[in-house]
Recover the amino acids of this structure.
């Protein structure tokens, strides 16, 4: 005689408290999973140590946002750093808000939850914008039936997705497109961009090269012990477009002595600080100024 196994039902979660109108429950940390394709780095740096100390003293004040998975676990939408701190501190459970939403909405929420962080690298922002742009395209590009029964694309808004993202995030559509282009950089060049060994605008130029051509640039940078200027990357990109690029020609450009451009104008950050957010880097300020001038003199 065989016994029927009783189905194990998950015990009903009793809300601990309300947080901004949503119910907060406790979930075991072992059931939490990182968001698939999460573009933000979870680093054990000084800010993480400060967050760990804060959680040790005060607990997790802002609940994590999670979404149920088919396997019965939970995918983190917001709170990867808090989850990391909880693991460091040996916490078995953390407070969460459980939300159920379409995949596209979960990607957009995940990206938005971190995009306004003061400390964010170029690569993080690039892949975040790419994920959000693709999710919004899928969301607004769903098909619907027209009056005559044919399927048609439903866009919702006449704006391009990068323009909608621009309205929400503050960067211009052109700047968002540049960031997304950076995702075509090989990892080694992306790393140089993140650590300041390669400037933003030259990096965008290099992102239009093939992987092989980018590796030629990387080797030439190591050989010359220098990063390419914007005028140099323009020339390299032109050679690539015309099919005349070679490993040797890239190296020749990189070893050229860089000339100081005539008529260079400089401003101190203090002179410009009242016009830009306090966390803007000099490179971001320069990019914004150039974009404003381009709009004025179109």
């Amino acid at each position: 005689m065989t016994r029927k196994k009783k189905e194990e039902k998950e015990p009903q979660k009793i809300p601990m408290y309300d947080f901004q109108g949503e119910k907060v429950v406790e979930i075991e940390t072992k059931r939490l999973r990182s968001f698939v394709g999460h573009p933000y780095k979870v680093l054990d740096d000084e800010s993480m140590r400060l967050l760990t100390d804060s959680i040790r003293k005060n607990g997790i004040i802002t609940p994590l946002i999670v979404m149920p998975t088919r396997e019965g676990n939970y995918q983190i939408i917001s709170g990867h750093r808090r989850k990391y701190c909880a693991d460091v501190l040996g916490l078995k459970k953390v407070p969460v808000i459980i939300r159920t939403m379409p995949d596209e909405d979960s990607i957009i929420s995940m990206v938005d939850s971190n995009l306004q962080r003061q400390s964010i690298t170029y690569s993080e922002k690039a892949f975040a914008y790419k994920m959000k742009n693709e999710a919004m395209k899928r969301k607004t590009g769903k098909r619907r039936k027209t009056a005559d029964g044919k399927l048609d694309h439903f866009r919702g808004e006449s704006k391009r997705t990068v323009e909608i993202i621009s309205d929400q995030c503050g960067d211009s559509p052109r700047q968002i497109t540049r960031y997304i282009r950076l995702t075509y950089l090989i990892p080694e060049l992306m790393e140089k961009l993140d650590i300041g060994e390669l400037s933003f605008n030259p990096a965008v130029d290099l992102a239009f090269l093939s992987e092989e051509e980018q590796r030629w640039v990387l080797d030439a940078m190591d050989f010359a012990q220098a990063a390419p200027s914007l005028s140099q990357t323009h020339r390299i990109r032109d050679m690539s477009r015309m099919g005349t690029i070679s490993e040797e020609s890239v190296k020749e450009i990189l070893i050229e002595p860089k000339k100081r451009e005539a008529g260079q104008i400089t401003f101190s950050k203090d002179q410009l600080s009242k016009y830009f957010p306090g966390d803007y880097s000099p490179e971001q300020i320069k990019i914004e100024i150039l974009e404003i001038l381009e709009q004025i003199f179109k």
